[in-house]
Every structure is written in C-alpha cells, then in structure tokens.
Amino acid sequence: MKMVQEQDPDLDNGDAENEEQETEANGADDVALRPGPNADAEADVERYISADVRALYDVYSYRHAAAILANSFPDELVQIEAALLAFRITTGTLARQAETNRLCRRSFLTSCGRPGGSRPEFREI
Q: What is the reported pTM?
C-alpha cells in the first residue's frame, strides 16, 4: 500500500506565486546588483555616508542602518568609512594571488609538505 501525501487545499495560502517571484528575484547569486525593494531612499544614504565612500562603492542602506550608524554610532561610522577608503584591491592583485595559491598548492602536493619530498606514511590506529 502506497501512501501519497498531498497538501490540503484549505491550507494553501496562495503564496506559491509570491515564493516563485522571490526565488527568481534572488536567483542563485548572493550578490545584488541593485537595491532590494526594502532599501532606504538614495537621499538617505547620501545624507549619512560620505561622498568619497559612495564614489568607490555601491552603498545601500536597509531599515535606516545609515541613519542609525550616523546618529547612534558616529565614531564607528568614521572607522568603517576610513577602512573602506583605505581598502584597495585590483583584478591584478586577485590574479597574482590566485597564481601564487596555485603554485603553492602544486609545490605542497609534490613534496607533501615535507622537506626532501618524502611521502608521509599513514597507518591505521
């Protein structure tokens, strides 16, 4: 005897379409290329986040985060902005680091991380 579990139509709240739209909107990527529908107005971001930071980064504020930082935690906002302004990374830096990582992995695997390239012995305990 096979039991089939079906959803009770009385319990269906009709959100299937909304869930599908939300899934499509979020997609498989975890990086948004534009602010979500609940983002604060751009004018609010401009009011609280420095022009220098906004020139380097796409800044979005949700649930008045920029206003809260500026008014309740001004010292921390100054530190965050200073860190963002000091941070620089280029595609060249990323490419060099990837090549370095690849070479290190190859070297490590060749020598198994041991002087002279001797292979470690694995024993069952």
A: 0.53
